[in-house]
Write a structure and sequence with these properties.
heterotrimer, A mainly alpha, B alpha/beta, C mainly alpha, A: mainly alpha, 11 helices, 0% strand, B: alpha/beta, eight-stranded mixed beta sheet, four-stranded antiparallel beta sheet, globular
């Protein structure tokens, strides 16, 4: 007559199924996921799947410069005769690398600071951390990144540094809000009363409950970091030629408009493609995580 | 007593379903309920049995788009509410029937003042009759309604926001909105259950006063038989979306017939000895795939094969006392 | 009313943050490798001249002292000299700032107006083709960066379909109005100079649309989802149940709480609007402070860079305060709650 008790393993698969249902309910999220996978796979296998991998380096072929898109050159060639399609795929590599490095540094830092500030709310740690965060958040993101990147030598690593520097505060602020409200929940107080040390409370009690907004934000942020990188390379900071970068390709190609429109439009479309993918997927992740936590 | 003339509300075989992942939650499975003029009726049942759904179906305030009423009629003075157009429905809501929600905090809009909210209720109930409604008149009626629920300093209350009030006061505001125009039927959904017991007692007393003074009919939804006994003349016992038994209060307590009703009565702990109360084993059914026959059958110790196949209909065992159980028909 | 103390606290906090910001920028600007004096004068300038300039720029003094001189100047309104334009940074700012502000305000108005309009439409016609169309448009609108939109506009309106101007603020041949506010549209209206007004307006349309698109669609979606969330709330059912007509319930009682989320992110969206201005101004050759800023950054024009950052910081602060005030006006819980911390 009773219902059989759900075991943890059973619940995991059931939850996964339900989570996938929630994610896939929105067909667009699945489209986003597909796009993201395409981008990642093509970036990883770029040297093997692009028709002209050597065009992503120092290569010139003026005989074939400025050719329209054709079967031979899917997106046409640029002013130096390089295949734009191959260069775009290679540009994905740096874009993703940038996102991984930046988020890999900024997220843990931001999360840690936010947790500390949130848990020690009202004490000096909170004030110091949050005021510093406020300072970095006082300027719109791109502006700060531009300034920092401009003042350092323009290359890929420096633009990564610049973006990381202005990215972590967003996570600090996010975690601050979440952590400071969770720390008043009963289970945290219970843990404190039973003598758990601060380390345990912050990382084993509070943090696990903050994970869903973090994941959602990270999924969406990959797209934004890539956009920021494209903005930086658009003005000439960031990855330097001949290595391809999407923003740089857009700005280089802009000079040849409207006759050789493909030199700008295709890299621009590639940026939109990436952003679209991560945005759609990120939305799906948000739907999946948020509703399951009620 | 059984004349058709003073029947106010007649719910006939109401089915209400909610649309969800995997199909429909078939919550209401044939509700039959009658309220007469001046009658005080209570709807008793455990959490999740569909009491609020029934009430929301009456006023047609179920969440738009997510529900389906495949069968049934809700007749108010003979007219089917489910078929009314928007003008008639609005008239019904502002002048005939009012519902007082269970959780007053959720029922009040937190970004508008009490004055705005109750003022609008008054304004639109008057607007049906009069062309232009004066602000002073609205204010006067609002204050009057607030006074009737014994709220202190009603004039000042008009500029307050809901979050500035205590739970009990919010509940009173909801009641004030319900009685701001003279209505014929009040539906009170578990009034005071989210508040502490003394406040709840006050609220119930207030409701009783109002109902007696104005001769309004009332449907009191509650999960407590004790409250039902004190407050109302007739009790409808509900389980998993069906009415399983109904009788005058005194008859129900004297002679419960349905196994569920008996189980409910036995679950109430008695102060006068008798040891621990005996509960009812099992849980409410899964509305996604409810049992085909009687919905109480999985938990019933007297179940018979016919109980599994078809749901029993309400059957009169004595005057005014109906039961939906094959047991009763023997 | 608590609003006053709320504002005061925010204001003081902002001052503190601006000061902190200036320190950070200053330090970064001075700490990075590269000799500003040398860069200003070029590789061929003789060493003594460079040395003189270094002394003038206090580059030989310790950092805190440099900061002190700089702040002293800033408080007096002297942001130093631009190495690029060779004049007072303050003058540069005075010239270019209004252009950007005009653009930003216009873009902001477009953004808010259409965001709410689209959001409400999408919520009202939920799950119909209207909603789906707006939703798909939103996905693209958010994914297409402002500079891409700008480039596409250049392509389309610059060459194929020249119905709108793509460069600058005013066409040659139109007399520009006297500078009163610096906002061309306002100034020309004040003077009654209608041809200039229309011309200035037309020039603003494309860059403003490019800037506002992303934020517009994002806010539209937030508005829609906020409204959809609230649609299921009990207070709406209660209000309907009490007899308030559907139209009023939808427009008044649903809209106000739903707008709270929208307004809350307006600050952020305005920030991205200002950020995107950097690239969009470059593309449309809009003579604004962002274009000036980019130039300064590429030439390592330290004083100009610091000044631009501080200016943007202040603008952003002010915007945030305004947004917070509006949110407080919409949501009484924020301004009247006594037991709230910062």
């Amino acid at each position: 007559m009773g219902v059989s008790l759900p075991t943890p393993k059973f619940m995991f698969w059931k939850n996964l199924g339900r989570s996938w249902y929630k994610f896939s309910r929105n067909r667009l999220s699945v489209v986003g996921l597909v796009i993201v996978l395409v981008v990642i796979v093509s970036a990883i296998f770029a040297p093997w799947i692009t028709p002209y991998p050597e065009h992503a380096g120092p290569f010139v072929d003026f005989a074939n410069a400025e050719l329209r898109p054709s079967l031979r050159y899917l997106c046409g060639t640029d002013n130096m005769g390089r295949d734009i399609f191959s260069r775009i795929i290679f540009a994905f590599q740096d874009a993703l690398l940038m996102a991984i490095v930046v988020l890999g540094l900024a997220v843990p830092l931001g999360v840690l600071l936010g947790l500390l500030a949130g848990y020690f709310q009202g004490r000096w740690a909170d004030t110091i951390i949050m005021r510093i965060t406020d300072i970095f958040l006082a300027v719109p993101p791109l502006i700060l990144a531009l300034a920092v990147a401009a003042m350092l030598k323009p290359n890929l690593m420096n633009s990564m540094i610049a973006i990381t520097v202005m990215w972590w505060p967003w996570y600090t602020r996010l975690l601050y809000g979440t952590a400071s409200s969770i720390k008043n929940e009963y289970f945290v107080i219970a843990a404190e009363l039973t003598g758990a040390n601060k380390f345990h409370i912050i990382f084993r009690e509070i943090l696990p409950n903050c994970l869903s907004p973090i994941f959602t934000k990270v999924a969406l942020d990959v797209g934004w970091v890539i956009l920021l990188e494209a903005s930086l390379s658009f003005v000439g900071l960031g990855q330097q030629p001949p290595t391809p970068a999407l923003g740089q390709m857009v700005s280089d190609g802009a000079r040849y408009m409207p006759t050789y429109w493909w030199m700008t439009i295709f890299p621009a479309l590639a940026i939109v493609f990436i952003l679209l993918g991560f945005n759609l997927m990120g939305d799906g992740i948000r739907d999946m995580l948020e509703t399951s936590r009620g | 007593m059984e004349t058709k003339e003073n029947v106010l509300l007649d719910i006939k075989d109401l089915h209400t379903w909610y649309r969800v992942y995997g199909g429909y939650l078939k919550v209401l499975n044939g509700i039959n309920l009658i309220v007469r003029e001046g009658e005080r009726v209570s709807l008793v049942g455990e959490a999740g049995c569909g009491k609020t759904t029934t009430m929301k179906s009456i006023l047609r305030i179920l969440p738009p788009g997510d529900f389906l009423i495949p069968k049934g009629e809700i007749c108010y003075r003979g007219k089917d509410i489910l078929k009314m157009n928007s003008r008639e429905i609005q008239r019904l809501r502002s002048q005939e029937i009012a519902m007082i929600f269970q959780d007053p905090t959720a029922a009040l809009n937190s970004v508008f003042t009490i004055g705005t909210q109750i003022g609008d209720v008054v304004k639109y109930s008057l607007a049906l009759e009069e062309k232009r409604v004066h602000k002073e008149k609205i204010k006067m009626l609002s204050v009057k309604a607030l006074k009737e629920v014994s709220l202190p300093d009603p004039e000042r209350m008009l500029v307050n926001y809901p979050f500035q009030l205590s739970g009990g006061m919010r509940q009173r505001v909801c009641i004030a909105m319900a009685i701001s125009s003279s209505r014929n039927l009040l539906i009170a959904d578990e009034p005071g259950t989210s508040l502490d017991v003394t406040i709840q007692d006050q609220i119930l007393r207030l409701l009783r006063e109002i109902v007696e003074k104005k001769g309004t009919s009332i449907i009191l939804i509650t999960h407590s038989l004790g409250v039902a006994r004190e407050m109302t003349d007739r009790i409808y016992v509900m389980y998993a979306g069906t009415i399983v038994e109904t009788a005058l209060t005194k008859d129900l307590f004297k002679n419960p017939v349905h196994p569920y009703t008996k189980g409910l009565l036995a679950s109430v702990p008695k102060l006068s000895g008798g040891g621990l109360a005996k509960g009812i084993p099992g849980r409410i059914p899964d509305y996604l795939n409810p049992p085909q026959g009687c919905r109480f059958q999985p938990r019933c110790e007297y179940a018979t094969p016919s109980c599994v196949e078809t749901p029993p209909q309400l059957f009169e065992v004595e005057k005014g006392h109906l039961v939906a159980c094959y047991l009763a028909q023997r | 009313m608590k609003l006053g103390s709320f504002l005061l606290r925010r204001f003081l906090l902002s001052i503190f943050v601006i000061i902190g910001l200036s320190i950070v920028i200053f330090v970064i600007a001075r700490v990075v490798p590269g000799d500003p004096a040398r860069m200003a004068l070029g590789p061929r300038a003789p060493e003594e001249v460079v040395q003189t300039l270094r002394k003038e720029m206090y580059l030989d003094k310790p950092l805190p002292e440099q900061y002190f001189y700089w702040i002293k100047g800033v408080v007096r309104g002297d942001f130093g000299h631009s190495l690029v334009s060779k004049r007072l940074v303050l003058d540069d700012i005075k010239e270019y700032f209004p252009a950007t502000m005009e653009l930003a305000i216009f873009a902001g108005i477009l953004m808010v107006f259409f965001a709410i309009l689209l959001g409400v439409l999408a919520a009202q016609y939920k799950d119909t083709w209207v909603d789906n169309l707006i939703r798909i448009a939103s996905y693209f609108g958010v994914a297409i960066p402002a500079f891409v939109v700008a480039i596409v506009f250049m392509l389309v309106f610059g060459y194929y379909w020249p119905i709108l101007p793509v460069l600058g603020r005013l066409s040659p041949g139109i007399t520009s109005p006297r500078t009163i506010t610096g906002l061309l549209t306002l100034d020309s209206l004040i003077e009654g100079n209608f041809p200039a007004f229309w011309d200035a307006l037309k020039h603003m349309i494309l860059p403003a649309v490019a800037l506002s698109l992303g934020g517009l669609f994002q806010e539209a979606r937030i508005t829609r989802s906020s409204m959809v969330d609230n649609m299921h709330k009990d207070f709406l059912a209660a209000e309907r149940g009490y007899g308030i007509p559907e139209k009023t319930v939808m427009s008044k009682y649903l809209l106000k709480p739903s707008l709270i989320s929208t307004v809350s992110i307006m600050g952020l969206d305005f920030a991205s609007l200002l950020s995107n201005a950097f690239l969009v101004e470059l593309i449309f050759n809009w003579p604004g402070i962002s274009r000036y800023g980019i130039n300064a950054m590429l030439h390592k024009d330290l004083d100009a860079i610091s000044a631009v950052i501080v200016v943007f910081g202040v603008v952003f602060m002010v915007t945030n305060i305004i947004v917070d005030v509006i949110v407080a006006l919409l949501d009484p819980r924020i301004r009247l709650s006594t037991a709230r911390d910062v």
